[in-house]
Design goal:
About 65% of the residues lie in helices and about 10% in strands. By secondary structure, it is an alpha+beta fold. Strands 3-4-5-7-6 form a five-stranded mixed β-sheet. A two-stranded antiparallel sheet has the order 1-2. Helix 13 runs antiparallel to helix 14. The longest helix is centred in the middle third of the chain and has 52 residues. The protein is elongated and about 135 Å long. The mean pLDDT is about 80.
Length: about 425
């Protein structure tokens, strides 16, 4: 942003809609925080005092539900006045139905107690923010407009002018000073108010938004959906490959053998040719079944690990591939992690083979362990411009890695060359 834009933003800030909305947020916050504080403290004190009887439990549960309602109001206020959309916490679910189970779920809810904490700690901050914002706003505009109203002091009071720091502002120089002082305070006020509301944003997000556990649960639910969808897609692919490949070939083979059996007596030579052709079809069907099994989980990966499995994958690429695997010999990652790593490299090398006609002359695969992470990097010198959002294959890889807390990073400049780095959790075998 240039200097002119910065100066323009500073000069417009006092009359901008954002500044007035944030100022209104701080003004409205004080009476609301007094209401929250009074009801929360009264309710919690009453409920705690009544815990010697059963009445304390429903009173506390009611206070928690009330404070969650306060949280809903505060999130709406932040959304409309501060322009920040904060997600609500996860709903409270009771394991059983009935009022007793619902009250128990409320009392055990960490998010509900955070709402109570917000209702308590918001009051002192609201008092501070209200007083500071109102003082800055009133003083700034009062001094800024002092040249327009200073004449009212000698006309309606006994004072010749406003007194500031033991100086009476009744001379032209004093009036000019008051104007400049008011201008400085007025220009600074929106930024002071923005700093105050930033703290409010943090309080609302930290105490009234979803917790880290809620975020994690949401991520796991999303990842579970990705895993289920991926598994279903893999099953459909296997079914399609079997139906269109080996199964169709075996059906044709059975028909050819049936015809050969019928011709065996009347035309042995023709039957022999048909059996010989059927033998060739059997070899092709077996190769297709081996390829299909290799695509599901290759035996070499189970028996000899990633080094041998990735070297085998590299031999099927249409361009030369250098494979370097630097993993501890005494331990291996979990089988699921090994399988995903193998799948990632296979898919990336298939992409290299597809783009070989676009200039790719070679590729490299590097695999190593860093801390508790398994790192994979596949590089090629072909056409660049690849991206996760643009290619369905890379998007699928990213989703599969994300489902196990992995990361996929693509560096593919338009002028050529692609570097794809995948990071997976190690999760060693138990």
């Amino acid at each position: 942003m240039g200097n002119g834009k910065v100066i323009g933003a500073v000069l417009r800030a006092p009359v901008a809609g954002r500044a007035w909305r944030e100022f209104a947020y701080l003004l409205v916050g004080l009476p609301l925080s007094i209401l929250y504080f009074s009801l929360a403290i009264t309710g919690v004190s009453l409920g705690a005092g009544l815990l010697v009887t059963f009445l304390g439990v429903p009173v506390l549960a009611g206070v928690l539900a009330m404070c969650r309602g306060f949280g809903h109001l505060e999130r709406a206020r932040v959304r409309h006045l501060l322009g920040v959309d904060i997600a609500p916490p996860a709903p409270i679910r009771a394991r059983k139905s009935g009022p007793i189970a619902a009250m128990g779920a409320l009392l055990k809810s960490g998010s509900a107690w955070r709402h109570v904490l917000y209702s308590v700690v918001q009051l002192p901050w609201a008092v501070f923010g209200f007083c500071l914002a109102l003082t800055f706003w009133a003083c700034g505009w009062a001094f800024l407009l002092y040249p327009l109203w200073f004449w009212t002091l000698p006309a309606y009071t006994e004072e010749p002018g406003l007194v500031l720091f033991s100086f009476t502002l009744d001379s032209p120089g004093g009036i000019a000073f008051a104007f400049l002082f008011g201008l400085a305070v007025t220009l600074a006020t929106p930024w002071v108010i923005r700093a105050l509301t930033t703290v409010d944003r943090v309080l609302v997000a930290g105490l009234l938004g979803p917790s880290r556990l809620d975020h994690r649960v949401t991520e796991l639910e999303s990842d579970r959906g990705v895993v289920v969808d991926t598994a279903a897609a893999d099953l459909r692919r296997i079914e399609r490959d079997l139906h269109d490949g080996a199964q169709a070939r075996l059906v044709a083979l059975a028909m050819d053998l049936g015809l050969a059996k019928e011709k065996l007596a009347e035309d042995p030579r023709a039957a022999a040719r048909m059996v010989d052709e059927a033998h060739g079809e059997v070899k092709i069907a077996l190769q297709e079944l081996r390829d299909l099994a290799r695509g599901i989980h290759p035996a070499v990966l189970t028996d000899r690990g990633l080094d041998a499995a990735l070297s085998s994958v590299a031999t099927r690429c249409v361009v030369p591939v250098k494979v370097a695997v630097d993993l501890p010999a005494e331990q291996r990652p979990a089988e699921a992690i090994e399988g995903i790593a193998y799948f990632v490299v296979s898919e990336l090398l298939q992409n290299v083979s597809k783009h070989a006609g676009a200039g790719a002359r070679g590729a490299s695969v590097d695999v190593w362990k860093s801390g508790e992470r398994l790192l994979i990097q596949v590089c090629d010198d072909g056409r660049g411009g690849a991206g996760v959002a643009e290619g369905a294959g890379l998007a699928g890889l990213s989703e599969r890695l994300d489902a196990v807390d992995g990361v996929l990073v693509v560096d593919s400049p338009a002028d050529g060359g692609t570097v794809v780095t995948a990071e997976l959790p190690w999760r060693g075998r138990g």
